[in-house]
Design a protein that fits this description.
Helix content is 20%, strand content 48%. It has 455 residues and is α+β, with helices and mostly antiparallel strands.
């Protein structure tokens, strides 16, 4: 019985102590596992924090790259837009420039003249007041891809429509080629635009000897300070078709020595005339609004013309001086060949500070006032004095001589506007219209004013 009780008590004790032991073992394992999990979670948190930092850095780099790409794309778009965009500048008139070398500019000029001519009453010639639209031109000019260019201009003065310039050009460095109606290479005065001449009309010999634009092909080569020009020409576009042809050449040396512009040049002209042709040399008294010409060779049968010219000029600050000479020889079948002469000498001075006469490409250029009207200034004021001679008497031809003393006062309010007053005292010998008693030596006076604008 006692053994049974002892055994029962032992079993009960064992059964009672087993759960407590199990609980101690489970708690320790849990704590250890929790500690392990905590350590792993801390490691994971550190890793996540590191990854978040790396992600933020990567995002920042990506954002910077995206922004840089956007800026580059924007600049590229701007460059493309600029390359494709049409540019409009203003030089007296709109000048439109497009992609690839295209450009287009309308151009024009208007000159209105008025004044008086006074001749001896006994000559019976018409004088007194006169006026005219001297030039009224409209045209276009521009460039094309490949170095090509064009210019076309017509004149409406006098109620007639006449083509002045009409040519295609090509430029490559110092070389320029032109084909069409254009100026020949005869004289500094002739090549200077009517917008920039210093008197109402050009030197007497340029008009008397028939200098004008003609249809042909020309070359201009400009290596540094030297200008070499030459061309083959037919006749003026209004006089075609005929068999006349000619050749012209001109060489100019135009160095710039400090503030001084020098100009020295010479030209040669030859014209071969078709059989039965005639030439006539004559001139007005320094203004164009009169039809009277007091020296005149009349019509001369001719087979050819040969001319030689010399020219010189200097520009220094407000002062300029220039002069030319030209001899025109006419081959006349069955007669002695006469040689006629023309020339002039001129000085000019600006009265406004900082102004000077323009010069470009072997010829005088427009005046650009230092202080133009509209920008707080009064424009440019210039005075000019000239002696001009034309002799049309030689080898039995008595066309007369004209010696002129000319003065002009020019006001240029802006680059593209001009007002001029010009006076000329012309002294004649062997004039074609005799005065009282058969006198052919007398004088004629002319006074003219001009209003001018161009674009």
């Amino acid at each position: 019985m006692s053994r049974l009780l002892l055994c029962t008590a032992s079993i009960a004790a064992i059964c009672t102590s087993t759960p407590a032991l199990a609980q101690d073992v489970d708690a320790s394992a849990v704590l250890e596992e929790l500690a392990t999990m905590r350590s792993q979670m801390e490691t994971m948190a550190n890793r996540i924090q590191t990854l978040e930092g790396q992600l933020a850095a990567a995002q920042s780099t990506a954002d910077a790259a995206t922004e840089a790409a956007a800026r580059a794309e924007e600049k590229a778009a701007e460059s493309v837009a600029k390359a494709d965009a049409t540019q409009v500048n203003f030089k007296g008139a709109p000048e439109i420039k497009g992609k690839g070398g295209w450009s287009f500019k309308p151009r024009g000029r208007l000159q209105y003249d008025a004044g008086f001519v006074s001749a001896p009453d006994s000559t019976g010639r018409s004088d007194g007041f006169g006026n005219e639209v001297r030039r009224a031109r409209l045209g276009v000019q521009g460039d094309m891809p490949g170095g090509f260019g064009y210019k076309f201009e017509i004149d409406f003065a006098g109620g007639d429509v006449a083509i002045t310039d009409a040519f295609l050009s090509y430029e490559d460095g110092d070389l320029e080629v032109a084909i069409g109606q254009q100026n020949n290479f005869q004289s500094l005065e002739e090549l200077t635009s009517s917008l920039s001449i210093s008197h109402m009309e050009r030197a007497a010999f340029t008009d008397a000897f028939g200098f004008e634009r003609r249809v042909g092909a020309s070359l201009t080569y400009t290596p540094g300070d030297v200008i070499i020009q030459g061309g083959l020409f037919t006749d003026a576009i209004d006089d075609l078709s005929n068999k006349n042809w000619g050749a012209d050449a001109r060489v100019v040396y135009a160095p710039k020595l400090g503030d001084t512009q020098l100009h020295v040049g010479g030209s040669v002209h030859y014209a071969d005339l078709e059989p039965g042709s005639t030439v006539r040399y004559r001139q007005r008294p320094a203004v164009h609004f009169t039809g009277e010409r007091f020296i005149n060779t009349g019509n001369l049968g001719a087979t050819s013309e040969t001319g030689f010219g010399g020219e010189a000029a200097i520009i220094r600050g407000p002062f300029h001086a220039t002069g030319e000479v030209f001899w025109q020889n006419v081959s006349m079948p069955g007669m002695a060949d006469p040689t006629f002469f023309g020339g002039y000498a001129e000085v000019g001075l600006f009265l406004t500070k900082g102004d000077t006469r323009g010069y470009k490409g072997g010829k005088f250029d427009r005046i650009k006032p230092n202080k133009p009207v509209g920008e707080g200034g009064s424009g440019a004021v210039q005075i000019n004095l000239r002696y001009d001679r034309l002799d049309l008497t030689d080898a039995g031809i008595f066309g007369g001589t004209q010696d002129g003393l000319l003065a002009s006062l020019i006001w240029s309010p802006t680059d593209y506007t001009r007002f001029m007053i010009g006076y000329a005292h012309l002294m004649y010998s062997d004039a074609v219209y005799p005065a009282a008693g058969g006198d052919t030596s007398y004088s004629v006076d002319s006074l003219g004013v001009r209003a001018q604008i161009d674009f």
